[in-house]
Each structure stands twice: as C-alpha cells, then as structure tokens.
Amino acid sequence: MASPMSAGSFLDGLRAEGLTVVEVGDWVHHNRNHKGPWGPVYGVVIHHTATSGSEHTVELCRDGYAGLPGPLCHGVITKDGTIHLVGYGRANHAGLGDDDVLRAVIAEKALPPVNEANTDGNRHFYGFECENLGDGEDPWPKAQLDAIEKAATAVCRHHGWTERSVIGHLEWQPGKVDPRGFTMDWLRGRIRERLK
Questions:
Q1: Is residue 40 reached through a cis peptide bond, with omega within 30 degrees of 0 on the bond before it?
Q2: What pLDDT does residue 1 have?
Q3: CA separation, residue 111 to residues 45, 95, 100, 171 (Å)
Q4: Number of helices (H), then strands (E), in the chain
Q5: Handedness of CA 143, 14, 63, 118 (dihedral sign)
Q6: 172-194 burial by CB neighbour count: b if 16+ within 10 A, else e?
Q7: Which of 119, 122, 125, 129 is nearest to 155 (CA)?
C-alpha cells in the first residue's frame, strides 16, 4: 500500500528521468478530490487521447468536457515527448475497472483477462494520457514512446514498483482499446530495462 507521492516529488522524479516537463496552470491543486480519496496508489494507467493537436489535447485533458470534468489525467504526453502536468490528485482517467486486475497489480503478477468494472480506478492509479488518434495508424514518434517509458518509470522508481505496476486502460476496463499502436508487454519490457 502506498500513499501518493507529493506533487513536488512527482515533478522532480519526472525531471530526474530526463523528461521535458511543462506545468499547466495551477496543476498542483487541480483535481477531483472532492469526489473521493486519492490513494492508496498501486500503479500507473497508460491511455491514448483519441485526439490530435497538442494544444487542443492538453486543454481537453485539463478541463474535461460535458459529462466528464477534468483533469482527465495527471500528465499529457504529446507527440514531441513533452509531458504537460494538468492535475494532481484524483483525476477522471481510469474509471471503474476489474478488481482481479487490481489484485494482480498490487501483487505485481501477470494480469488476468479484464471482464468486469466494479472497482474505482481513479482512486488507485496515476494516469498518463498520450496524444494519439488511437486508430492504429497514427504514428507514435520515438520521442513520445521514450517519454511514456520514462514517465511510468519515474513513478515506479519512486514507489519501488516493478514494471508490472504499469497497465494499459484496455487491461483495466472492459471495452477499452487504449493505448492502441503498441503493446503493453513491449512497454513493460522497456520499463523493466530502465529500472535496472
């Protein structure tokens, strides 16, 4: 069981992995904590945004939209590999997911097939939204993939987690397809190597 790191530790950890970080507005205090607690935290969820255009994507992830208020993640990773911090605390990114998956993440074991949505993921996960149309054709530039690896690694390094604490939205919530365009096993392999 882990308490969320402080916003300052989060920022420092991302920069220590070599990331270019942009702080968007008062991201430190922008959250959904009034809807419930954030923590204990157990892992990281990776998403794609199904959007294009960095400025639009960052704004959407910060502010949300009708029916789903922002922030929609903690950091937005744009095509150029920059991470834009848009919120810190509870964020509307993971939604309801599978309690069996959560138990596997906590135990750092292989994930079971996702087949139910009965557990609040917004409470238990850090979230990174990654700018991509999610159509399987929109490219993932090397700078962006490197940044996704580094961002997830920074969180794992702080908490002493392995790569098994990093999951895709599709592994958490039935019906989700993100991130589309690379596999989570491939990403976890890169994170494992980076943590050595």
A1: yes
A2: 66
A3: 13, 18, 8, 8
A4: 7, 10
A5: positive
A6: bbeebebbbbbebeebbebbeeb
A7: 125
Closest CA to 130 of 41, 45, 43: 45
- C-alpha 185/C-alpha 38 separation (Å) is 27
Dist CA 12 CA 157 (whole Å):
12
Pairing of strands 166-168, 43-48: parallel
Distance CA 118, CA 1 (A): 20
Answer whether 132's CB lies under 8 Å from 181's CB. yes
Question: Which residues of the chain have a pLDDT value below 50?
Answer: none
> Which one, of 163, 14, 166, 167, lies nearest residue 77 by Cα?
14
Task: Return the C-alpha torsion angle 38, 91, 188, 180, nearest 10.
Answer: 150
